[in-house]
Amino acid sequence: MQHQQYASRLTVSVTSPPYAGFSRAVDANGIRPCDLCPGAIFGVELGPRPWDLEALKCELLHLRQSHPAVPVVLRLGQALDVEAAHVIQVATQLHVRGVIVDGDPIRETLCRFLTEPVDLPADVVEWLALQRPAMPPQFVELIRKIFLHGETKAALQNLFNDLGESTRTARARCRKLALPPPSDWLQAARAVRAALCLQRTPSTPLLELAMDLGYSDHSALSHQLMRVFGAPAGAIRRTLGWEWLLDSWLARWSERAVVRS
């Protein structure tokens, strides 16, 4: 009962492109995924002190499980002290993507946190495990290494060798889990990194970014983003974060898998 009482003092708001500000408080339990536009971000505020960190943990876990396409940031007032620093530490361990302090420029601050993750491979496997908690450790490690090292098909084969697993075994494992095969994860990992680069440098010409990322031209980059995420480069560039992109990719893959079966 105590956790429910404190949880009611946690305020959830939403910001969406162009990230000019956060909405008024919303009922997270009443929001449907279709009500949130691509690139939406939840802002969680704690009520008056004392803060109940267990309530915060429960709220964040529920929020992230219910809306995997929406990253969460913590919103704090200007009065930062030791207790606030401790809350930031705990929130980071709970995979909050960043902290917004009253008065911070919202889009610039969010861009810094959401387009330059400290450890993207670890974030991705934690995010995936939140939705698929029964994933075998070997598969989790494969996905982590794909996002860490998997730049090419040759690199993917080396990852199989490092894990002591054949391509056929890895494919069968993915099929059993009803998840995309390793080659598709490789494409998704490359596309996610390209998308984050687009978001991080909105004024850089698309052709210049494409060449820096190893694509032949801007059309090749645009086509891959559309093929993987179903969204054009311009639309992706207006958003922040990778969660909605991977969530969209998994949903699109699942729909195609159902049709093929």
Class of the largest domain in CATH? Mainly Alpha
Roughly what fraction of the amino acids lie in strands?
5-15%
Overall pLDDT: 88
- Evaluate the radius of gyration: 19 Å
SSE arrangement, N to C: HEEHEHEHHHHHHHHHH
State the end-to-end CA separation. Answer: 46 Å
CATH-defined fold name of the largest domain: Arc Repressor Mutant, subunit A
Strand arrangement in the largest pleated sheet:
1-2-3-4
Q: How many strands, what sense, and barrel or not for the largest sheet? A: 4 strands, mixed
Q: What percent of the residues sit in helical stretches (DSSP H or I)? A: 55-70%
How many E-type strands?
A: 4
- Counting DSSP H or I runs of 4 or more residues, the number of helices is 13
CATH architecture of the largest domain: Orthogonal Bundle
Low-confidence stretches: 1-8
Helix-and-strand structural type: alpha/beta
Task: Tell me, briefly, the overall form.
Answer: globular
As for the number of domains, it is 2
